[in-house]
Design goal:
Blueprint lengths: L3 H11 L3 H8 L3 H8 L9 H13 L28 H10 L1
Length: 97
C-alpha cells in the first residue's frame, strides 16, 4: 500500500514532477494526479499501482508502512503520528509557521 502523502514525498525526494513520474511508471499524468489527490491510501487498479510502486522502487524509493522498520540504511523521511489525532491541529500549526 502507498498513501498519497508518500507518493508526493517520493516525488519530492526524487525531485521529479508528475509528468516525469508518469513517464517512469508508464502511467498517464491524469492517473498520477488522481492518485496524489486521494485521501489516505492511493486507490487505483492493481496493475497501475504495481507499475507505480515498481517505478519508485527502481528510482531508489523505499516505501515504509506504519510501524515498519526500514530495511536499508538510506536517508528518508517518515511522518510521526501527531501528538493529537486531530489533523486540524497539525494543519493549524503549519499555518502559524
Amino acid at each position: 500500500m502507498i498513501t498519497a502523502a508518500q507518493l508526493r514525498a517520493a516525488r519530492a525526494l526524487l525531485d521529479i514532477d508528475q509528468r516525469q513520474l508518469a513517464e517512469l511508471s508508464g502511467l498517464s499524468v491524469p492517473t498520477i494526479q488522481r492518485m496524489e489527490a486521494s485521501e489516505g491510501v492511493v486507490r487505483g487498479n492493481v496493475d497501475s499501482l504495481m507499475k507505480l510502486i515498481e517505478a519508485l522502487n527502481q528510482s531508489g524509493i523505499e516505501l515504509i508502512g506504519d510501524r515498519a522498520a526500514s530495511q536499508t540504511g538510506g536517508r528518508g523521511v517518515r511522518l510521526k503520528e501527531p501528538a493529537l489525532s486531530d489533523s486540524r491541529h497539525v494543519k493549524g500549526m503549519a499555518k502559524r509557521a
